[in-house]
Amino acid sequence: MGDPRVGGVRAEETGMLTIGELARRTGLSVKLIRHWSDLGVVPPAARTAAGYRLYDDEAVARLELARTLRELGLGMAAIRDVVTRERGLPEVAAVHADALEALIRTLRLRQAVLRSAHARRSTTEELTQMTRLARLSAAERNTIVEEFLAEAMGDLEPSAYREGILAVMPDMPDEPTAEQVDAWIQLAGLVRDPALRAAMRRMAAYAAEHAAGGPGDAEANARGEAEARRVAELWVRLAGEAMAAGVPADSPAADPVVAEIVAAWLPGQAAGGFAPGGDGAEARLRLLEQLEMAADAAAERYWRLMCVINGSPEPPSIAAEGRWLTTALRANPEPRARAASIEATLAQDAAIDPSLMPEVCARVLAEVDVLVAAVSPGRFGDLTPCDGWDVRKLLDHIVYENLMWASLAVGTPRADHDADHLGDDHVEAFRAAARESLAAFRRPGMTERMYGPAPGWRLIEQLVIEMLVHGWDLAVATGRSADLAPDVAEAILPSVRAIYGDLPRTPGGSFAPERPVPPGASPADRLAAYLGRDAWNLRRLE
């Protein structure tokens, strides 16, 4: 071991510590202390005659401080400066805190990119591109958007709308959230979409053509913007109220709502040179054109992503109200158009002997009863062909349709479409509602009685159509035979085509576009396919 003496005196007599003793005092390894000693963090106070290092009590304090600073991530050069008092601890701590902040920002950025890549199931090439986009400076981000906007509308006439678009740039903070980083990655990809470029160009061109004033007419433009906001708030409210009340957009009941919106919208159009002389086909077509121009999904996504990036509140989505109103305008292209179409259809001869309609309805309800009774509560959450409806919602609607048509037949229309009509026993709820509808339909003279422009048998016909179609939905959802009442479905299909043939098959409407059917399809399948159900791909819902 050599001579543990300093100047002929033993180390323990001097009060100094050997490196082994220092290791035991601090809990650090001899190897680490030796390394730090070589770096000047804790130089030996003396050496033995044999050259072994000896340390004083100050070395213990230095090592404790060095360990703490190392755990905080400081480099050894900075630690040496602190423990040797060449630099003050506050100064070093501040510098290191700044460095940690930069590191944290980098790590958060990487985390956001990786989460975004996971959500998109990105390829390695896409991950590389996403990382590059996330690291861009503010000026580089603006350049991407500015180049997109220049290509989209650079050669258009100046307008307040165009200038407003150009004024909004992605202003991501120095420490963006993961959501903001992801929104920027999405936006950078979106602006490469030719469809968005075309949509933004159409909107800017339309705004320039129909503007109340030129880009320099601030007062006229301000009035136009205020008027547009007023009308937008009105139609969103009215369409929302109609939706909440269960008013189908493609029904005559939507016509008064459309009329009120058109009346509020027309005065503001005069400033742009449009004066059709009141509500009519020309005015409704112009309003529909404007709504469709502004309702582009890619453009809406562009603005929503920009709000997220800039930390601005996202405006509430009005897509559902917009779909309702555009569908209502298509179904009611001029005042009373839909009502007149239905009245003409109602005047046509019956496909089934009107006197037999109550019993035809009873037959169909009996077949639907079998389907309803076979559903266990465990199936309530299963998907159905009705978009957005599970089995329980479908059952509730089937019950409500019976109650609603029965109430119309006795002259006391119901308005509780959004209530729970199933209760705890869906089978008994259906049977009670079916009994109520059949009792109303079997009253003497009901089939001949006029309900507005419709004879009573037409009300029964509507419930038969509802039960055939929604019974088909229930059968498909629960894996049972969907071939309901073939002779009734065959006989009633011409009436369905006459009643619903001119309806707009749009997202806001009652029915999806007609689906093709192969030769030999059953009458119920053909009926369901005509009303937008995919009679084969929906046989196995997952």
UniProtKB/TrEMBL annotation:
Residues 16-85 form the HTH merR-type domain. The keyword DNA repair does not apply. Transmembrane segments: none annotated. It holds the Pfam family MerR_1. GO terms for molecular function: DNA binding; DNA-binding transcription factor activity; metal ion binding. The keyword DNA-binding applies. Keywords: DNA-binding. CDD domains: HTH_MerR-like. This is TIGR03086 family protein. It comes from Sphaerisporangium album.
